[in-house]
Amino acid sequence: QIRRVPYASFFARLQGVAEAAVRQADQPLTARGDIRGYGCATANLAMAWLLTSDQRYYDATIKHLDGLAAHPSWAHGLVFGHWAVGYAVAFDWLYDTFDAATRQRYAASLFAQGQSQFDAIRTYSDYHSFGYTCNTMPVMLAGLTAAGCALYGETKGVAPWLRLAL
Predict the structure, then answer these.
(1) Distance (Å, whole) CA 73 – CA 104
(2) pTM, whole model, 2 decimals?
(3) 3-state helix/strand/coil string of 95-163
(4) Cα–Cα distance for residue pair 59/165, rounded to 1 Å
């Protein structure tokens, strides 16, 4: 039904975003301008694969997940929020396609990045932690919430992330 109204226009936009992300999947994260969109592209690729079963979308999603998992720091603030949401959504939606080792590697990466963000917020060690009314705080909390939800039941220690968001 994705090709019928009212979904067809949404699907067309999704395919456009996914095709652009496929073309960029082999570029390193540092070769981009505003890198926040890398997380958004990761979630869009996962959705495109789920809706179409097109192997190119799956392969590009894996490249995005691998790129994010290999990145030493997702920083704090907007970059973390966007990357964590995209990574968590893709991890959740593709979860059953991963072997145990891949699942554990992706979960460990998401946990490490989420814990870093959580620690920065709860200790006020990063200036973003003070932006209660700034757009940055909801984006950070969205990333932390998505990560916590994707890892809940998989990895111990994420319940405090969800309590913080609440």
Answers:
(1) 18
(2) 0.92
(3) HHHCCHHHHHHHHHHHHHHHHHHHHHHHHCCCHHHHCCCCCHHHHHHHHHHHHHHHHCCCCCCCHHHHH
(4) 32
* CB environment 129-142: b (16+ within 10 A), e (fewer): beeeeeebbebbbb
Give the closest residue to 102 by CA, choosing from 61, 159, 143.
61
Q: Enter the tokens of residue 102.
A: 């891949």
Distance CA 48, CA 144 (A): 24
Interval 14-44: pLDDT, tens: 999 999 999 988 887 765 567 888 899 999 9
Concatenated DSSP letters for 25-65?
TTS-GGGSSSTTHHHHHHHHHHHHHHHH--HHHHHHHHHHH
Whether the ω angle into residue 6 lies within 30 degrees of 0, i.e. cis, is yes
> Residues of 58-76 as b/e, b for ≥16 C-beta within 10 angstroms?
bebbbbbbebbbebeebbb
Q: How many other CB atoms sit within 10 Å of the CB of residue 43?
A: 24
Query: What stretch of H or E contains 69?
Result: helix 55-70
